[in-house]
Amino acid sequence: MGEGRVERMQSRLDKLRGLMSQQELDACLIMQPENRRYISGFTGSAGALVITSDAAILVTDFRYITQAQDELTEGFVVESYDKEIVDAIATLARNHRLKNLAVEADYVTLRFYDKLKTACGGVDILPREGLVESLRAVKDPYEIEKISEAARLGDEAFSHILGMIKPGIPEMDIALEIEWTMRKKGALRAAFDVIVASGSRGALPHAKPSHRPLEPGDLVVMDFGAVVDGYCGDMTRTVCVGKASAKAREIYQVVSRAQAAGLAAVRAGRTGRDVDCEAREIIREAGYGDYFGHGLGHGVGLAVHESPRLSQSGTDPLPCGAVVTVEPGIYIPGWGGVRIEDLVVVRETGCQILTRSTKELLELD
Ligand code: ZN
Ligand code: ZN
To answer: Which homologous superfamily is 141-364 in?
Structure first.
């Protein structure tokens, strides 16, 4: 787990307790898997954390007791339950004399909420959004190191795949080879299903790889990321099979300029919306505004899509230490698409780019 883990985990818990006391919460219940892992170190797939001002408890079942004892950060205690997790939580609420308990509004089901309310009787169950997510938005040096490592594996997979791109190779084979390469080099898994979209299929921003063989002149959009110790990478490059047409070249240059403008705009204190606008304006001026239908980027960490967002709805200032993508694209139905995506760390005076692969338009055959 490396040096400094105890301090790192303690600092997360301290910050969460700070937010809880600001919001006058006696306790919060954390069940969303990435949130649970972030606060406690526990990577199992079931269990609930109950965090009060002076206690940190993981309630889980017998399948996870040993794993929890191995993984949980110092100061946490494990409690097992047999039948209903809500009953175990209710007992804790009584023992700790809680008046209220915050739950993750973006995660718990209505059914769970009702059961918890009934089991906990006099305790106010308060739905809250983004408590832990707001902490996760700012990465510590350990997290940045893991994400950089994931980015490096992505770069290696990209440089490897260039040798395979030629007419006749199906998209699926390229996607498999990208995933295989990342895993072979040490990724735990791919952060999401690898996207390979060639020719007119490139107009679908989230295309699933098909059996379509590459054809001369195709633009090929490849979007992928590795997972390292739970932390995700995310990058996109678009290359050409053989010679690029004048139109392909023009659109590539527009996206490339928009991406550079987005990167230049990233710095702590600016809003995600501002940064999005800078890149979007380049695409609009070039006449392709209607063909860039998604936000400029998103936070990346334990989840591949997390806070903060670089989009028209991103009205909060970007925090220093956030890790975000900058990924403008142009998608023309029936023709194809171009997207270029880098992973960057938000710093006080700009951004630090983690993705190192070239962004020149490569013409491969
Ligand atoms: Zn991506
Ligand atoms: Zn992305």
So the answer is: Creatinase/methionine aminopeptidase superfamily (3.90.230.10)
